[in-house]
Amino acid sequence: TCAVACASVLEIGALNILGATRLAMDRALQELIRKNPDIVLPSAERDTPLWADAGHAPSAKVLVDGRPLRPFSWQHEAIVDGDAKSLAIAMASILAKTTRDAQMMALDKEFPAYGFAQHKGYGTQAHIEAIKIHEPCPQHRALFLRNLQTEQEAAQQASLFE
């Protein structure tokens, strides 16, 4: 059984990417527990696992690709390069990537001028050119746009000295 959850553009803007990652992971774990009430995960806030009677050991472990998430609602084991070291993390990475790709395909239907189906939301040159031509759409994150603007300004400054 698996569960996938996301954070919105507004949530990413409000919480930053790490905070939004924690939020989405928490949502996915809540959904996983809802689908499988027998799964017991250790809560970071208590000595006893959440959704477990006292004395029951956790039946599952939360694995995270990368560094520990702090704060995070769940006790977890962080594994740097986890998708290369853990089959469970590798499978979760594939699930996350295919889910994101599907979202980008849907976004491409809503905003076809940006080429989301081709670049899948990455800042390719074609994506950047589409933003210049068509202006940002509501799904473009403010930080991405600010970084893009900063890069463009730096390139313009550099060209003055060539």
Verbal overview:
- This protein has 162 residues and is mainly α.
- It contains 6 helices and 2 strands; from the N terminus they run αββααααα.
- Strands 1-2 form a two-stranded parallel ribbon.
- About 4% of the residues have low confidence.
Largest sheet: 2 strands, parallel
Query: How large is the count of helical segments?
Result: 6
Could you list the spans in which at least 5 consecutive residues all have pLDDT below 50? Answer: 47-53
- Shape, principal axes of CA atoms: elongated
Extended strand count: 2
* Strand arrangement, major sheet: 1-2
Helix content: 40-55%
Helix-strand pattern, N to C? Answer: HEEHHHHH
Q: What is the rounded Rg?
A: 20 Å
Binned strand content? under 5%
Structural class assignment: mainly alpha
Averaged pLDDT? 85
Q: Give the terminus-to-terminus CA distance.
A: 57 Å
